[in-house]
Structures are given as C-alpha cells and as structure tokens.
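Example complex used in Figure S2.
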Amino acid sequence: MKLLKNAALKALISGALFTVASTPLIASESPITPAQKETAQQLMVTALKSELGFSIVESLTTEIGPRLGGSEAEKRARDWGAKLGKELGFDKVAIEEFTMPFWDRGHLHIALTSPYNQELYGSALGGAAPSDKEINAPIVYFRDIHALTAIKDGSLEGKVAFVDGEPMVKSQTGAGYSPSNQKRRIGWQHAERGGASALVIRSVGSDSHRFPHTGMMSKNGDKWANIPVIAISNPDADHLRRLHNLNKPLAISLHSGSDWKGEVTSGNVVLDIIGSEKPEEIILIGGHLDSWDLGTGAVDDGAGVAITTAAAKLIANLPKRPKRTIRVVMFGAEEVGLLGAFAYAKKHEANLHNHVLATESDFGARNIWRLVSNVNPEATKLVDEIAKIIAPLGIVRGGSDVKGGGPDIIPLDNKGVPTIRLSQEGTDYFDLHHTPDDTLDKINPDELAQNVAAYAATIYLFADTNVDLKAKR
Amino acid sequence: MKLLKNAALKALISGALFTVASTPLIASESPITPAQKETAQQLMVTALKSELGFSIVESLTTEIGPRLGGSEAEKRARDWGAKLGKELGFDKVAIEEFTMPFWDRGHLHIALTSPYNQELYGSALGGAAPSDKEINAPIVYFRDIHALTAIKDGSLEGKVAFVDGEPMVKSQTGAGYSPSNQKRRIGWQHAERGGASALVIRSVGSDSHRFPHTGMMSKNGDKWANIPVIAISNPDADHLRRLHNLNKPLAISLHSGSDWKGEVTSGNVVLDIIGSEKPEEIILIGGHLDSWDLGTGAVDDGAGVAITTAAAKLIANLPKRPKRTIRVVMFGAEEVGLLGAFAYAKKHEANLHNHVLATESDFGARNIWRLVSNVNPEATKLVDEIAKIIAPLGIVRGGSDVKGGGPDIIPLDNKGVPTIRLSQEGTDYFDLHHTPDDTLDKINPDELAQNVAAYAATIYLFADTNVDLKAKR
Ligand SMILES: [Zn+2]
Ligand SMILES: [Zn+2]
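Predicted assembly (946 residues):
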C-alpha cells in the first residue's frame, strides 16, 4: 500500500499542488479561494505522512479493548476520548451522559447433537433472552427468512428453528447487508410465533470463516425476544445445510446466558475546534466509540473515531482556525440501537438549526473512493469543487441527492441537517463486521491515512466557506 | 480456478496427448512405454473432470465431522472409510486396530484480567494437563522461546509464562513451521522448570485471524506436561505484546479441562487394488483419517484421504489392474503422534521389503507444483520421465534425493522404503492448520481435482513399471 500513498503524494505535490501555487488565476465563480485550496492540499500531504490516525485506533483498541454499549469498558473509552481531546488541544471537551438498558451476552454453549456431537461457533444476537436451562431439541430447517415467515402459529413447539439463506453479496457499497439482515432483525418474531424454543440463524456476513457475526435484533413495538437467538458462522451454516440435504436428523444443544441487566449510564464524547468567525455554526463529524464485545472494534468503529479525530487535529494545527466550529462526536451505544445518536439529537434539539453539516465515518478504513452529498442545491457546486480537490486521493464525485451521513447521523438528518458521506471501499467490511476478528491488524495504516487526508481537506473546506449548506425546508 | 482447469485440460488434450497418440516413436531408452504414457495422460484428463475427490472430502467432513485420534468420531470415520472402500470396489478392505492413550481437550476459559477484562481466543495444546481450579496469575512476558529457555529454575512460581515470537514465515514449502513450532514443542518443559502455573504461547500459524492453532507438544523422555499449555490467536498475541510494550501490568484467568483419559482403540483403514503381475509389491499412498477436533479437518487431512482414494479408484477403473498393488492407507491418530503410522510399520514389519514406494498427501489441497523423490538412483530416470508426463499440470521436477514422503511415511522411510512426494502449494496451509477454520469451504474443487490427476498418473506409472525403486541398503 506504500504504492498508493506514494502515488497520491506524488500527484498532490508535483501535480495539483504546484500547478495551483504557480497559477493564482482561478475561475472567478469558484466558491473556494486559491488560498483555501492550497491549505486543503497541504492538509492532504500532511495527513498522508501522518501516523496520528493509526496511533489513535491503536490506543483505543489496545488500552480499552472491546467496549460494549453501556459497559464499564465503554465508560473507560469515554474517559480515554476526553483525555485524548485534551491532549490534542481541542478547544472544548465534554462527556454528555445518557441512560440506557444494558444487554449482556453472558456465556453461550451451542453444539450439534444429531447426527453426532460437534461444537458450533455461535454468538447470541443483541436483545436475545437467556435459556432457563439447557435446550435440547430437534432443528427445523428453513432455507431462508421467507420460509420462516410463512409458518403457522404454534407449529414449532419443542423445536429450534434454523434459518439458512445465501451468504450476503459482497460489494464496495455493502448493498447486500440490508436484505441479508432481515433474518437477524425480525426472524425471532416468527420463531416465537411458531412456539420455537430458540432461533438459530446463518450469520449476516460475507466471509467464509468460522466466526459468528453478532448484531442487534429489531424490537417488535416495545417488545424484545423472549427466546435465545443465536447466529452461527457461515461454515457452520454450510455444514447444517449439507446435513439437511442428506436428510440427516438434526438436533441441537444450546445454553445461553444473554439477558437484559437494567439501566446503566452511557455517553457521547464531544470535542470542539471553535470556529474563528462563525463559532455557532457546527460541522459535525465523528464515529462511534462503542463496539461489539467479540472483537476490539478496530474496523467498527475505532477507525471512524480515529479518522475524524485525527482530521480535526490536523485542521487545528493550521495557523488559524477555520470560520465554522468543527465538532467531533464519539457516539456511545451505537451498536445497540443508535442510543448515543438519539441522545445527542435530543440534548442539542434547540441548536440543531446551527448544525450546518453532519457526517460519520462508520464503514471501516479501506480507501475512500467517493463523495456523496445531500445539501442545499445551491451549495452543490461547492461539493463539486471539493470533490475535484480530493480527486488526487482516488476519490470520485457521487450523487448530490444521497441521503444519509452515517448511522449516528440519522436523527440529525431527520431534523434537516445537511449531510455528506466519504464512502470507504467496503468489499471486505462485512467479512469482519461484528465478529471476534475485528481487530487492529485488519487496518492498513496507509489506507487509514488516506481517509484522514480526505476528511481533513473536505471538512476544512466546509468549515472555512461562507456557502450556506442548508436548504430552507 | 476454472481457468486453471481448462488450461490444463486444453494442454493435455490438444497438446501432449494427441502428439503422443499420433507419435508412437518414443526414445527407446525411456522406462515408460507409449501405452503407459497414454494411459497416464487419459487418467489426468479424467481426473480433472471428475468430482470424486471433492465428494469424498465433502462426505468425510459432513457425515463424520471433527475426528480426534482415539475418539468415537474417529471410529465412525474408520467405518466410513471401510464402507467407502467397498463401495468404490477396492479388492481388499481392512481395518487394522491399535491401542493408544487418549487426550481430551475438555473445556477452556481464558481471559485477560489486567489491565482490564477481555476474553482471549485460545486452545489447549495436545498433551497439556488440566488446571485443578481456576488459575489467576500475573503474566511474565517472553519475547520468544529463547528468552524462556534462558530462565532460572523456580523463577516463575505463581506466574503464567507467555511466549511471544514472530508469526511464522509464509512460504509454499511451509519452511517456517519447524522453527516457529519450537515454542509449542518444548516450551512447557522450561515453563515447568521455572515453576509457572501455566504456559501460554502465540499460536504457530501464519494467519492474522482470531483462531488459536492447536497441535501436539513433545514429550520429555516419557513425560508429558504437568501444567496447562494454551495457544492463543495471533491477534490476541499482538494485543498482549502491545500492552506489554506500554508497560501495562498483565494478568490472566485460565481454567482448562484438558487431560489424559486412558487407553482407547484407534486404527488404520487399508484399501488395496491388487496388482495384476506383482501383487506382492506394494505402492503405498494415503492420508490421515484423524483430524484435530476444532475444525472438520478438511484441509488437514480430509483432502489427503480424498485425493489418494480418488486417484486409486480412477486407476481401478482402467480395463486392467497395474502390475503392482496400490494400497491406500487412511492412517489413524496422526495428529497425536503418528500413532497409526508406527502401528502400521510394526504390524507390517515382516513385509516392509515388499513396500516398493510410499507417499502421503498431508499438506492441503492447493495445486501440486513439484515432484521430489528418494528412490534407487538407477530409478531416478523413471521419476524424471514421470515428471515430464505430469508437467502439463504445472508440476516441476524437484530434487531426487529429498527424504520424506509425508509424516505417516516416516516409520517406513526409516526402514528403507523408497519415497516420493507431490508437493502442494502451501503458502496458505498454516493459515488454517489446526484451527476451527479448517472446514470444507477452504477447498477449491478444481485444485483438488488437479491433485487427483497428479496422483493418478504418477501412482499408475509407478505401479505399472518393472523398474526396481529400492536401493540395496
Ligand atoms: Zn459501526
Ligand atoms: Zn496433517
């Protein structure tokens, strides 16, 4: 990956940068001044050489480790985030606490007992109920979620339902996730309706490793599942499928301690670089500080926290603060239901009109390849010009009416806050997503630096412009 | 991989095969007749199109699953192997039992407890003792096995030793395994000498996934370890290393149920294609039927069982049996100390002079790229000629004085049985080796078919020749 880094650096330094430096004549209608453009380009050069981003995610994953929303580890992560903000010289550092119900995984044992004994690699899904005692039951096989939703009420009494399905389709956008995820989201409602003792699903993930992918189920109204719900790895699901196709009688033994443990405290960490001219106008960037508990949350989403914090710090290192305030939010409890995101939107409700742009990095740390936006149509030209400036990083301009700045931005988006997104290459993302294998070694420092470069240049330009990003809605 | 298959097929059919068919004039000194050569080439064409090899490893891994040496599952695997031999029409099918001490993994829990609580992904090593009760102790970090071997007696009382080391070097020959494996083999002796409560090592494996690699320790004389010995995954070891480098106080909680469970029965499955002219002369091929218990033993060594059985069956499908007997041995209890191999050599001791060649497939199922040999020097020309015939499969001729036909061939090699080896491309082999991730999805059916093609042609030619392979030793 040194190649990419060097190639990008070379393009920036010998091409675009010096061309601009020696060509002060810019088409008069550009919303970006030559000086702003040069600053953005210098930020990219600096970011590509900087190890700050990687050192942040290394510190978070090493010194804190896994940090489930609401856990004691997540509390340590907040303290880590606030300390980091102070050390990096952010102008304002705050921890904004909120309360939430805590779900704990407990211990799981799951094994095939017929046609023979074999351990399965599984993980409880978020929100699942415990088994009172060990469940020993035959498996009823469903080829996909549609087959399960078609069952009659009460037809699964004394059984464990297993929902298979194709492994999710891999793509750079992660488009296969949402359809594949239905069995994780709503499968439990139908298994319960059928009277099943438990539900087992094929993991929602694009890999073929022996790792289960955990993740939150959806509530049904305000009700969570009353049965254990377990995801098993893709190779384990393949194994059950092959045995089913051989007409072998399948049975399972399962004991899960996952359960709700009452109200606890979580929180968001908020770090500000105060704007020099319009300090009240906020450009919000960030990632989520919590992770699932199986891995150390490097890719999801230590990377996002690191990329956005490092980008803001590089902007703060400039001789002068940009006009607008840049706010880094390390959201708490994202994985367990965007709880930090909703808490933030509620707490800052009266001030959301001053949030002029929001975006989150929560799709890993592979190279950013695209910039999409959903801003005031009159501001679209600014985004187009920013896209040209970051193009030497290999980034193309995507749609100008693409809603969504990341999961934790949903509540802000709903309230009319303009959004952009810098899209990471996501082909491998769902190989690691929510597995024990989401660890630091999966991050390429050079690719992470490309992310920091893209964020630093882009966010600087949005923060230093006078262009109104917000449509009158 | 269809490309490879098609390319190989095309080369065989349109190139070598028809050239030979239409050119009956062969240099007179060749030890291989034109008819033999054509038969070998037809075997390759047939094998590349055949799904037999894959169907065998699919059946073994699916219908039997993991099959630890000495376990009930390994007994089922023997019955499966004998049934398969009968179904495929082998001339003679036998199960040759032997007794062995049984080591059982039991349940393991291992977690970091300082600087914070975090589950570790670990696995007991074969031969390790149980912990009487939960061990809670500080970790003493050793950067490699040499650092551990240098300790003073009694200096680790009340501590758990952790031996780090670099992840093993990846290569097609697997040359990095043996040096990396020292900590697994002999680490326990030094940890015990130091008085440590347990030994934890970085897994011997070339991957960066959250899987521990199990494997057998070495005995010290006739003594096994008296302490628990656990391998943790490479990412977990990286994690401990980073914490150690930050001078964090490391401590661990560990409870392992692994123990010796007394004498049990294992066995080898022996399948013969009886030779038509020299039935007493045996060409022995095979793989090992047992696997480690964490995965389903697809790559190690369901593949070897499948490749050699399928190759023998394709030879048996010829209109006429080759001159010599082809014997497929599915060795039992390889992983736990080559117990089946030694049992075979002992049982057949009086007849080993009739074993004219032996080889094992036990290095996965990626493409075979090389043929090495250790036969009577006067027979080396025959091997050279065979190498030319299988060259269209992408296989090169390696050394003619390379000892070793595979782990289970060691006792035969020691008694003077000539050996060859068809070397699989092994760069990825130690990513999967002895992990839970050794499952069927890791085998590419086209690459497995290339293996069957190489074995079928090679073994046919050795079985149908009159050349004496055995040196007078
Ligand atoms: Zn995330
Ligand atoms: Zn093996």
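The mean pLDDT of chain B is 94. Residues 2-102+263-464 of chain B form a domain with the Aminopeptidase fold (CATH 3.40.630.10).
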